Amino acid sequence: MNETSVRRLLDGVLDVLDARAGHGGSPVPEPAAVLARIAAAATRLTRASHGAFVLVPSTAADQGGEGYTDVVTVGLGANPAEPVWSRERTTAGKGPSEAKPERLLVSGSATNGAGHPLPGGFPATTSVLRMPVYVEDTLFGQLLLADKLSGGDHDGADERGFTEHDEDAVAGLVTAMAPLIGMASAYGKVELRLRWLTAAQEITGVLLRGDDPAAALRLIAERARIVSGSAVGAIARPDERADQLVFDVVATEGPVPADASGLSVSVRGTATGQAFTTGEPVLVRDYGTLAATYQSGWSGATMPDLVTALDSAIAVPLTVGDLPVGVLLVARGHGTVPFDADDVQLVRMFASQAALALEFGRAEQDRHKLAVFENRERIAHDLHDLVIQRLFAVGLGLEGLGKLTTDAKAGALVSGFVHDLDRTIKDIRNSIFSLQHPVEAPGGVRADLLRLCLGLRGTLGFEPRLSFDGPLDTAIPAAMRADLLAVVDKALTHAARRAEATAATVEVVVDRAGRTLTTTVADNGAAHPGERAGQDGEIAELEVLAADWDGTFSIGGVPGAGTGLTWTVRLPRHDARTQGGHA
């Protein structure tokens, strides 16, 4: 290599090192910038018309030798000075990157079909120079140069093609730049890992602030989609029987199609189910086609277009300890670079941290609930030990005072006050029960009725007043409980249909002997004629439910209130219905 070649080589090295500029003072430039600079420097060094840096293909373990390779070209396109990135398919060593490329110097005739694979965007060439690039004895890619330009003094070389001097100069450039390529590549991997860690920290912060867990799940799916460069990010959670997984959280670049949310897949025979049952990540290709085929045979359903367009996918379990709580799925569309083993590890790390954050968030919610329950318990004890006792003492005093008076009118007034105090004590006791039994917790008849009434607030536009009397939880069998809840549900639903109804009361009473259950639902609206005549289908069902238990049912006007419904049935005593229900 003569002095001119050495000078050009040094100029090329300096050009590449200038890639540090414009990166905010970072000691290591972006990997893409380094590769583009090397390709551009090599074209100038050899007077090539255009060049390319072709990376080693990324091929996942299950892809059967088929994968994609990244290619950066210079000297082509609308603006030859700008590098152009593309991704091209490679199969079994064919394509723009061979498994073990060697130096290649061809002059005179070399085209895309002449046995020297070139990137798809390259035009037919008259000369080709190929130089493999190794970083720490590992093949990183290859540098391709094509069509040496004629004219100018270039060490007396033949202007129609590349020379051995060009080959030596490019080899020197590649050798000098190998450490920088390695640093930039490592920097890119570290930066990607940092993006995953940043996303995980954001989710942890959201959950520890006590934000809505549903919003946190959406954030997990969205961040996983963005950082992984996927078309779709989704979270599937098991149903009550844990034999199906429901994709109730789906994130896409645009609005989520209505038919894409809420999809159910089996835990058996699917990639998502395999990740959930084994606790290990699953990497698949052509996910959309596989999912559509399986779903068609399993449930006969048709997968939405959003799913069928997916190709490479990673399903990673969301696990807390040894307990799987769901699956995180990220999937890319056809024509994009598929995931590889490094991607799987990064998604798995993110999923582990996200699952732990979800568990911490749930624990924080439980702590808040416990604080609320403790406060409710204190209030309930105060109401019972102080307020009820004082009201009871006042009631006894009034009852004694009523016996002392000889004025019949005054005695009737005092008796009325005592009755009102008695009802007030019952209402307070109902409130104490509501405080001590949270709506979401399972319980007896009282808890079920409370949960039902609170659940109908949105339909009614108000909260019905609920009162109990008698041993409801011990006297009412399980089969009758279901009918009782159905009666109250249908009665309040009918009250909601009356535009003039603005208040309702529900009274459920078991007599002291434990023989009769009486349920009264009253509201301040007027029943339509069909209801009172028994012509309404649902009202007729209540009459049948009463007859099943040897009871009675009536509906009519309530003086000063509006419409009242009374359902009275006999409580069974140790007969077959208490064990197995009724026909």
From TrEMBL:
GO molecular function, one term: protein dimerization activity
Keywords on record: Kinase, Transferase, Two-component regulatory system
SMART domains the record matches: GAF
GO CC entries: membrane
Record bears the keyword Transit peptide: no
InterPro entries per UniProt: GAF (IPR003018), GAF-like_dom_sf (IPR029016), HATPase_C_sf (IPR036890), Sensor_HK_TwoCompSys (IPR050482), Sig_transdc_His_kin_sub3_dim/P (IPR011712)
Entry-linked PANTHER family: NITRATE/NITRITE SENSOR PROTEIN NARX-RELATED, OXYGEN SENSOR HISTIDINE KINASE RESPONSE REGULATOR DOST
Name the UniProt record assigns to this protein: Histidine kinase
Organism: Prauserella marina
Lineage: Bacteria, Bacillati, Actinomycetota, Actinomycetes, Pseudonocardiales
